[in-house]
Amino acid sequence: MSAFRKTFQINKKDFIHAGEASVAVKNLLKSLNIDPKLIRRVAICGYEGEMNVVMHGGEGFLTFEIDSEKVVLHISDDGPGIADISLALKKGYSTAADKYRQMGFGAGMGLPNMKENSDQFEIYSEQGNGTRIQMVFFIPQGG
């Protein structure tokens, strides 16, 4: 399989288009006959990342890369950054505004789900300088 890379823009507070990038990635992985369990994990992480950018991050991007060994998702935004990453990674911790909670978001599972469903997870954030997340998913050989 040749290496492939595609970047999707994510717009702050754009709930109408939120999730489109992760659906596009999922459909591409399906067309490549990637293992459905891996597709599910990548889709979960992509969606969680998109929603975090939409709700918290300002303008951002989801970049998808695939080669014969792995899928990589890069999520970046120019939002306010995360004050305490270790706290943000705890299940149930959320800084989502009430208006997002009323929409069914903000349960505090976004970052924990991304960490749990990826094989490698790295997050960098600095207050005032946005957040960068990289998630790697290894492709099972033969699938």
Task: Describe the structure in your own words.
The protein has 143 residues and is α+β, with helices and mostly antiparallel strands. The protein has a single domain (4-138), classed as Histidine kinase-like ATPase, C-terminal domain (Heat Shock Protein 90, 2-Layer Sandwich), CATH 3.30.565.10. The chain contains five helices and five strands, in the order E-H-H-E-E-H-H-H-E-E. The protein has helices at 20-31, 36-57, 85-88, 98-101, 110-117, and strands at 4-10, 60-66, 70-77, 120-125, 131-138. The chain has a five-stranded antiparallel beta sheet, with helices on one face. Helix 1 runs antiparallel to helix 2 (36-57) and helix 2 packs antiparallel against helix 5. The N and C termini lie close together (12 Å). The relative contact order is 0.20.
Can I get a quick summary?
It contains five helices and five strands. The protein is globular and about 45 Å long.
Q: Which structural traits does this protein have?
A:
143 residues; alpha+beta; Heat Shock Protein 90; five-stranded antiparallel sheet; 5 helices
